[in-house]
Amino acid sequence: MLTTINTDASYHSDYKIGAFAFWSISDQFKITKAGYFKQECKNPHEAEMKCIINAIAVTLSANKNIRRIVFNTDSMNSIHVFTNDRANIRRYGLQWAAPLRRQFNKYLKNYDRGRNRLKIEFRHVKAHTGNDDKRSYVNEWCDTQAKYYLWKRINQLKANGKLN
Q1: Average pLDDT over the chain, rounded to an integer
Q2: Domains of the chain
Q3: In terms of DSSP bridges, do strands 68-73 and 17-25 run parallel, antiparallel, or are they unpaired?
Q4: 0.90 cut: is pTM over it?
């Protein structure tokens, strides 16, 4: 079964807070999920990578017949890290993300155990194209949800006196 996962994250550099949204769909299911990260994010790239990890964890735990996943993301750095593109990892200083790559691969390995090999493909999608196609709609949904949860978290922390 082919599954397509669209992801997006938002990040606030002053507060080191990140939020995520993903839309996972196949001919047998649809999963939409959004929220904020419980732990601080170093940068927007880490938020994007954590979003992809959340998406694969939720999708693979809920469905046992997936053979191929296509990720649509606007994060080239995530693609470099998760495909282990060593040249671009060095070029963009992404060595710090090795633990995230290992975590991603751990989900794949656990899912693959006793099954045919899961095939993963990453596609870079341009964000905010204004097009009227399905991919643009889903990308905009992910972006809107991630921003909503980012500001929801910031406002919660401010109300509790944990942020200025």
Answers
A1: 92
A2: 2-159 (3.30.420.10)
A3: unpaired
A4: yes
